């Protein structure tokens, strides 16, 4: 018996070390792709604004990007379940290289809106494939009953990703200023290529166990907690993007007279700070009660959403009262960033807490499909509402969306990590 136990333990330890090694490689590749994706967004936003595109036209360039994210998370989760997370990671990096090559090697085609939209669609596919691979990997390397570690690991991964996205905004503005659009795009493509070569050379085996029997119809979750959380996620990210993605940069540049460099720096600093707060969320966002680790649950998400809704409403009121717009916006961005980071960190933990180990890629894919739906709605509305009614209307829309996310959170389980499916399995095992 002792020999068997020793053999079993010896078999588990190398496997776990292998999982951690592969997870570290996936995370590094995800960080690189996040940096590249943020820089590309800034490049496209400012370059086409300089060509004279209206806010709505610029927003339309990102429509296929967001639509591609919706489709990718559904199909990508199914592919990851069948082929393993490693394959979806490599696919994501390769597609990102192709998207950037389209921008860097065909200058004449940049005047064709459909061509640029297609490039952005590929970038959206790439970003969501790498994100789904990395987020799903966390669930596989953390012990199933260690919810505290899961919360901490997810917060660190998500927070660092957003910090790097902020650096990407800064990098995009810097490259555009120093080298121009084409050279900047090719530089970013080279970064993605290096990540692909290193990851494919160093990774061993599969990350997760491929299931050749996985069916696409299983992507649509029958887990009520996952479905409700996905709905809340739609409104949460629509609330951010409805004023932050198009309306805010255009307002700062066109109304307040900021330079590309100044706008890019503000967005970069904000997202970096947002990521830092998100990574530190487990230290501050805990649920009081009987749960040993105090991990957040549905009520935590509800209260955080209600607090977040105050921020865009306060900025809108300040602008209506003719407070100095720079003070109102920059001052309001700070509490909005802190509150949004806490909300997002809790959501990112809850999806993995509610997901089942044998369907984690599918549950995460479905959840990030909803996330992409929210970003799509927010991006379109950001250009549309800003062009028709201005930044203040975008801010009030944001506040309404956040309240909707908070109300939906009331339907979430009051104990994270105990989805109905998992509870049934636990009772079956002990019965």
Explained architecture:
The structure is a single chain. The chain is an all-alpha fold and 431 residues long. The protein has helices at 2-50, 55-61, 63-83, 85-105, 113-141, 147-179, 181-202, 224-244, 247-255, 260-279, 281-284, 298-320, 325-354, 360-389, 391-409, 420-430. The longest helix is centred in the N-terminal third of the chain and has 49 residues, at 2-50.
Question: How many alpha or pi helices?
Answer: 16
So, the CATH homologous superfamily?
A: MFS general substrate transporter like domains
- Mean pLDDT comes to 78
Fraction of helical residues: over 70%
Number of strands: 0
Sheet with the most strands, sense and barrel status:
none
Global geometry: globular
CA-based gyration radius: 21 Å
Give the SSE string: HHHHHHHHHHHHHHHH
Low-confidence stretches: 1-14, 288-292, 416-431
Share of residues in strands: under 5%
Q: SS-based structural class?
A: mainly alpha
The CATH topology is given as: Growth Hormone, Chain: A
Tally of distinct domains: 1
Q: Tell me the CATH architecture.
A: Up-down Bundle
CATH class: Mainly Alpha
Short description:
This protein is 81% helix and 0% strand. With 431 residues, the protein is mainly α.
Provide tags for this entry.
disordered C terminus; disordered N terminus; 431 residues; 81% helix; single chain; 0% strand; Growth Hormone, Chain: A; mainly alpha; 16 helices
């Amino acid at each position: 018996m002792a020999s068997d136990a020793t053999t079993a333990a010896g078999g588990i330890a190398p496997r776990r070390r292998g999982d951690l090694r592969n997870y570290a490689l996936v995370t590094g590749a995800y960080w690189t792709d996040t940096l590249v994706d943020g820089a590309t967004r800034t490049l496209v936003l400012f370059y086409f604004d300089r060509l004279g595109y209206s806010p709505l036209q610029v927003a339309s360039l990102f429509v296929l990007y967001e639509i591609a994210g919706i489709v990718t998370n559904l199909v990508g989760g199914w592919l990851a379940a069948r082929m393993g997370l490693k394959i979806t990671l490599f696919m994501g990096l390769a597609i990102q290289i192709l998207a950037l090559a389209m921008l860097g090697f065909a200058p004449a085609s940049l005047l064709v809106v459909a061509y640029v939209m297609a490039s952005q669609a590929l970038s959206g596919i790439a970003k969501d494939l790498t994100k789904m691979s990395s987020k799903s990997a966390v669930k596989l390397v953390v012990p199933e009953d260690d919810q505290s570690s899961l919360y901490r690991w997810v917060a660190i991964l998500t927070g660092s990703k957003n910090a790097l996205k902020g650096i990407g905004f800064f990098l995009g503005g810097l490259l555009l200023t120093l080298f121009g659009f084409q050279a900047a795009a090719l530089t970013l493509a080279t970064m993605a290529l290096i990540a692909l070569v290193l990851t494919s050379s160093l990774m061993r085996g599969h990350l997760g166990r491929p299931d050749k029997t996985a069916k696409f119809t299983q992507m649509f979750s029958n887990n009520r907690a996952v479905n409700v959380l996905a709905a809340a996620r739609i409104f949460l990210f629509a609330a951010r993007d409805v004023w932050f993605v198009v309306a805010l940069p255009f307002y700062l540049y066109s109304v307040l007279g900021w330079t590309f460099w100044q706008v890019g720096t503000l967005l970069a600093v904000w997202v970096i700070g947002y990521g830092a707060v998100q990574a530190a969320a487990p230290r501050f966002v805990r649920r009081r009660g009987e749960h040993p680790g105090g991990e957040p649950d549905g009520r935590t998400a509800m209260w955080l959403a209600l607090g977040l809704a105050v921020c865009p409403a306060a900025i809108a009121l300040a602008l209506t009262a003719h407070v100095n717009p720079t003070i109102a916006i920059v001052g309001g961005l700070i509490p909005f960033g802190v509150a949004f980071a806490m909300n997002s960190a809790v959501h990112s933990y809850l999806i993995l807490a509610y997901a089942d180990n044998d369907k984690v890629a599918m549950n995460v894919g479905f959840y990030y499909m909803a996330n992409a739906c929210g970003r799509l709605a927010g991006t379109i509305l950001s250009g549309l509402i800003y062009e028709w009614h201005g930044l203040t209307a975008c801010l009030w829309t944001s506040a309404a969306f956040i309240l909707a996310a908070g109300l939906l959170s009331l339907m979430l389980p009051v104990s994270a990590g105990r989805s109905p499916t998992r509870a049934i399995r636990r009772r079956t095992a002990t019965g």
